[in-house]
Design brief:
Length: 265
């Protein structure tokens, strides 16, 4: 793969609601996911583009195809490119969409490819290709929790992804296996063997409350895991936010529990 990515300097700011500030040299460009932009200095030109602007997607039909693939991951047809058109360094900042962490990934050190959740991508150096990765195994595709389609980031530049809660990075040795809740999987290197395993046992299936399947990942390779998937966060907000349907830790007490803790509605 040719080395054609823009080299960018950056710093990640904050703790729970992070943003990434990217410093652009003259004529350097960074691409951002739609809706991730936070702020930019003067003499930075913003341009909406089809697809990701990588060299492998040059040509009208390639751009249309690249943009069309993004619809399969639930993303916009368009991305935004930010270019420093001035004669000295300028900064652009991108913000995380919900509480969690931003992960910086140097694709050159990861054999040029990372596979991640379909909504994890935040921004990257121009030249990084943002595509789709079909799960080759039927079980992983049908029951993977995050769906049959994941994102793939390819190139030799910097890319930034976002995930919820605390992020744990695990390095798996050859044949070492890790079982993960399907929603907690953020990303993994392309040499990881990814599949889905049925939890098993009628009590685990019916009463376990953890879903029917594990994601199984076998080394060698690197895996990133999140403690708070956005789907789990949204579910809890809906659960506790419904008037007249409040559930507490001691929910067996029902309405009496609400009276005891001061909520007598």
């Amino acid at each position: 793969m040719a080395i054609n990515n823009h080299e960018i300097d950056y710093r990640i700011i904050g703790e729970e609601m992070q943003c990434v500030e990217i410093e652009l040299d003259p004529q350097e460009t960074v691409i951002g996911e739609s809706g991730s932009f936070m702020m930019m200095e003067d003499q930075v030109k913003m341009e909406t583009i089809f697809g990701d602007g990588s060299s492998q997607n040059n040509g009208f039909m390639n751009k249309v195809f690249s943009a069309g693939k993004r619809l399969l991951t639930g993303e916009s047809l368009f991305m935004t490119a930010f270019t420093n058109v001035g004669d000295r360094k300028r900064k652009v900042t991108f913000a995380s969409p919900y509480p969690g962490k931003i992960i910086d990934m140097d694709l050159e050190k990861m054999n040029g490819k990372i596979i991640c959740q379909k909504d994890a991508f935040l921004c990257a150096a121009k030249g990084v290709s943002v595509g789709i990765e079909f799960q080759k195994k039927l079980g992983a595709g049908l029951f993977g929790g995050e769906g049959f389609i994941m994102q793939k980031l390819e190139g030799d530049g910097m890319a930034f992804v976002h995930a919820g809660g605390t992020i744990i990075e695990k390095v798996l040795q050859p044949y070492e296996m890790l079982r993960i809740d399907t929603g907690c999987l953020v990303a993994f290197t392309h040499d990881i063997d990814y599949d889905i395993e049925f939890v098993g046992g009628i009590k685990n299936t019916v009463f376990g409350g953890e879903g029917l399947f594990f994601a199984t990942l076998k080394g060698p390779g690197k895996v990133w895991i999140q403690s708070l998937p956005i789907s789990r966060l949204a579910s809890r907000i809906l659960q506790y936010g419904s008037v007249g349907n409040r559930r507490e830790e001691g929910g067996i007490l029902g309405g009496l529990g609400n009276l005891l803790d001061g909520d007598g509605r």
